[in-house]
Amino acid sequence: MKTAEEYRAIIKAVFAMKLAGAEDEGPYTLNKWVSEEETAALNEGYVAGLRESLRVIEDSIFLLEG
């Protein structure tokens, strides 16, 4: 059985991996309904959301302290 710290480390790793992939190539692609600027803004927002999620997980260490 894993500890809370081990689960936290796994979650951090997953978010870091998703963030690295999204920074290289975001999930949103250019199409006939969305302009290049809108696509870039959507991808930037997605990356910002992942960064904030990772920051919250990193800052939540106090929840594991005794």
The SSE string, one letter per element, is HH
Helix content: 55-70%
Q: How many strands?
A: 0
Judged by helices, strands and strand pairing, the structural class is mainly alpha
Principal-axes geometry comes out as elongated
Strand content: under 5%
Mean pLDDT: 91
Cα(first) to Cα(last) distance is 19 Å
Main sheet specs: none
Question: DSSP helix count?
Answer: 2
| Unreliable residue stretches | none
> What is the radius of gyration?
16 Å
What does this structure look like?
- With 66 residues, the protein is an all-alpha fold.
- It has helices at residues 4-24, 36-59.
- The protein is elongated, with a radius of gyration of 16 Å.
- The relative contact order is 0.17.
- The mean pLDDT is 91.
Summarize the structure.
The protein has 66 residues and is an all-alpha fold. The protein is 68% helix and 0% strand. Helix 1 runs antiparallel to helix 2 (36-59).
How are the SSEs ordered, and which strands pair?
Elements: H1 4-24, H2 36-59
Helix pairs in contact: 1-2
What structural keywords apply?
66 residues, mainly alpha, 68% helix
